[in-house]
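Priority: medium. Attachment 1 of 2:
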């Protein structure tokens, strides 16, 4: 069974990076100076002890405290609190960027939204050559616009003629990339602005320090500090992209570089380069977080029973006390194979038409309506307890309440082992 994953919006990242009544924002790369033989955390750095506590789960940084505590106190020497493993894995932070970027994994959804917003417009492209693939502006092997267009091109909209021009020739920095598109949407298509904002990000989520501990080793008789690759990647984002990182003495601070660039085109293309760099870092981070290693996926989202969609139960103010909700996207994937059969048997769809409806046209209003009618006749197995055991599950009927979640009312459920 396939499981759909939702990429974080800026609102999600804000929620994750707030705790203790504070916003946890990183703005300095200075604590990853590998000249030191020990970790020297600084305020706003990738190992800021006030935000993350100690990166070790059994001791503080200097070693004076050797035990985790539910109510930890800071070490009087290094200032690090030793949280329990559960608490340490909740200590997130964020990096605030001076520009918006699009996660490559979200590109197809973004492109669909773009096509829908400008469906009644005449889109023209002003490029030096006709084949976008040769210019690197398209998806691999295709002759259509790719993510590089949205990263680096200028968008000019004429409301009178309903014409949108996409140009690689830059003369107005404010009309370029996601910020330029946002201005057009805000002024002429305001009903789509909220959804558009959800597809792009201004923040970058930083995982807890407990997931990326540093190491100490001896090489040629000298003690050396080894840094987790995730921490190095976060530090490089701060170094190149964070305007608050004023201690970047090498002149690579974002504002310093932008001031040295003479033309709007140079500034737009430099920012586009950083967007591409962030996406490459996200790919690298995904490799580091695969389930073969001890990581967040293994700690919090492991699958213990075949064909189960295990995920945390999250409070929802719209749910009643006796209701349980899961994301609609997961519910859709749980039932999609049977939904294909339903379309073929009950509505005389061909197999090709049914598969197209559930994949290419999955967000179509008519498809959603058909799925709602079908899903509310189905029964699913749900376990609300901390373990996924075959004798601890309930059989429940689906009830679609809104566009965002499938609710399972326990009032109509029956224990399988009853």
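Attachment 2 of 2:
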């Amino acid at each position: 069974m396939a499981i759909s994953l939702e990429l974080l919006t800026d609102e999600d990242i804000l929620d994750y990076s707030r705790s203790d009544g504070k916003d946890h924002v990183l703005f300095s790369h200075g604590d990853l100076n590998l000249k030191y033989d020990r970790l020297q955390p600084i305020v706003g750095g990738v190992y800021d002890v006030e935000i993350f506590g100690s990166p070790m789960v059994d001791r503080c940084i200097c070693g004076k405290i050797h035990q985790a505590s539910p109510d930890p106190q800071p070490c009087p020497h290094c200032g690090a609190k030793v949280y329990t493993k559960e608490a340490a894995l909740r200590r997130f932070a964020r990096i605030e960027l001076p520009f918006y970027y699009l996660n490559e994994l979200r590109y197809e959804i973004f492109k669909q939204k773009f096509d829908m917003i400008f469906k009644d417009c005449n889109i023209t492209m002003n490029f030096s050559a006709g084949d976008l693939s040769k210019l690197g502006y398209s998806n691999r092997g295709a002759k259509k616009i790719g993510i590089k267009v949205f990263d680096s091109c200028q968008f000019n909209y004429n409301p009178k003629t309903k014409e949108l021009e996409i140009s690689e020739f830059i003369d107005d920095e404010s009309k370029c990339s996601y910020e330029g598109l946002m201005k057009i949407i805000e002024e002429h298509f305001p009903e789509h602005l909220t959804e558009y904002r959800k597809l792009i990000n201004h923040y970058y989520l930083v995982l807890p320090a407990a997931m990326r501990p540093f190491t100490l080793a001896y090489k040629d008789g000298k003690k050396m500090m080894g840094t987790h690759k995730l921490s190095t990647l976060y530090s490089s984002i701060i170094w190149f992209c964070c305007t608050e990182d004023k201690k970047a003495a090498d002149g690579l601070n974002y504002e310093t570089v932008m001031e040295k660039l003479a033309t709007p085109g140079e500034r737009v293309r430099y920012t586009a380069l950083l967007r591409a760099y962030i996406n490459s870092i996200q790919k690298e981070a995904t490799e580091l977080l695969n389930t073969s290693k001890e990581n967040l996926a293994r700690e919090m989202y492991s699958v213990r029973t075949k064909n189960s969609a295990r995920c945390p139960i999250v409070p929802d103010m719209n749910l009643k006390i006796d209701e349980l909700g899961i994301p609609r996207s997961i519910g859709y994937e749980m039932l999609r194979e049977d939904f294909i059969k339903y379309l073929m048997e009950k509505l005389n769809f061909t197999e090709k038409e049914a598969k197209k409806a559930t994949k290419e046209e999955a967000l179509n209003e008519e498809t959603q309506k058909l799925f709602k009618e079908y899903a509310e006749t189905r029964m699913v197995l749900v376990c609300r307890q901390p373990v996924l055991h075959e004798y601890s599950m309930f059989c429940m009927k689906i009830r679609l309440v809104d566009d965002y979640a499938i609710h399972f009312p326990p009032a109509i459920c029956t224990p399988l082992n009853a």
